[in-house]
Automatic annotation (TrEMBL):
<comment type="similarity">
    <text>Belongs to the sulfur carrier protein TusA family.</text>
</comment>
<dbReference type="InterPro" id="IPR001455">
    <property type="entry name" value="TusA-like"/>
</dbReference>
<dbReference type="Pfam" id="PF01206">
    <property type="entry name" value="TusA"/>
</dbReference>
<feature type="domain" description="UPF0033">
    <location>
        <begin position="15"/>
        <end position="39"/>
    </location>
</feature>
<protein>
    <submittedName>
        <fullName>Sulfurtransferase TusA family protein</fullName>
    </submittedName>
</protein>
<dbReference type="InterPro" id="IPR036868">
    <property type="entry name" value="TusA-like_sf"/>
</dbReference>
């Protein structure tokens, strides 16, 4: 993660996508981000190891900002900020 712990760093939406496999985490994140305002943040919780590759790539290709991930008990939480 970015290390910021203030309220502005809190995601507006948390998607629990545990148990879903590629490409579902990216597709669900894309759908959620489409409804959000630029600058809004989303946290994607995933257990699919490929999400660690797919989500940053998706962000790079679509103008979103991948802010990083944390891993805990087999769940990766990916923080994404919607681009313009």
């Amino acid at each position: 993660m970015t290390g910021r712990e203030d309220a502005a760093a809190d995601p507006a939406v948390v998607l629990d996508l545990r148990g879903l496999h590629c490409p579902m985490p990216v597709l669900r994140a894309r759908k959620a981000l489409e409804t959000m305002a630029p600058g809004a943040r989303i946290a994607v919780e995933a257990t699919d190891p490929l999400a660690a590759i797919d989500l940053p790539h998706f962000c790079h290709e679509n103008g979103h900002v991948y802010l990083g991930r944390t891993d805990r008990d087999g769940v990766s939480t990916h923080l994404i900020e919607r681009g313009a």
